[in-house]
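Entry type: protein chain
Record version: 2
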Amino acid sequence: MAKTNFSWDDLQLFLFVARGKGLAEASRETGVSAPTLSRRMERLEQALGNELFQRHARGYDLTPEGRTLLSHAEEIERRILEAEDNSLKTPGKEVVRISAGSWMSLYFTQNMSELQKPSDPFQLSLISAEHRLDIGRREAVIGLRNQKPTEPSLAVRKLGNYHFAAYAAPGCSNGWIGVCVDTRSARWTRSHFSNDILLEVSAPRNALDLARFGHGRVVLPCFIGDREPDLQRIGNPIEELEGEIWLVLNNGDRHKTGPRNIIDRIVALLAKDMSRFRGEISGELPSERSQE
């Protein structure tokens, strides 16, 4: 049998493009640029010898061959996810996979003792990713998102709102640290300070570490920045970056012991810290002018 020259990575990108009906949504979900996605889809079509998409100005529609591949790729995806679940399991323990962005994942690691107890009959698996995992297809059991999902198979609950602000180490220069991902805070920094960005990183957490060592200013969620002893907030929360926190769960998992316990603990933890998420701190904030 002749070897087909494409990989599971190609099929994963195909799934994002097919489900998003084009390159723009797939690029936002994966962090892969639209030109790169276009080249990868053309390469996949060449490898298969079939046209998978009808390309229009409004987006991509699947051809009959594309719909067939979508069905096969989703079956492969399902089997891989099942295999990953099985590999993570400790005998006798249920695995509860939580998906969150970099900052919420960091917050959870800082508060892990309140999320998992030694006596729990389940095991936590924390997945840190900027792109949205598909809860409906059980890429994760619980998800934390910044906008309300619309999938009918999901149970959702709004936990509150959160704010971002600018932070820097004392005495830091005016330059900024950019982040090369497609998030609202990264776009805001690029749009307002593109000429003042000193360096860029691909991982948000690296921007925090660089700011702690005085290498530039950074935009952080207040629930992260206000807890950093090496940083001080510059000015008030950035109004246009206010976001929402939504807890997402597959309807079929809502009454299981593990997810139910973890949800209750997440809700209690965030309720206790909600003033920090909203950026409400006491004391006088240094102004922009005082930092110049």
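Comment: The first strand starts at residue 53 and ends at 56.
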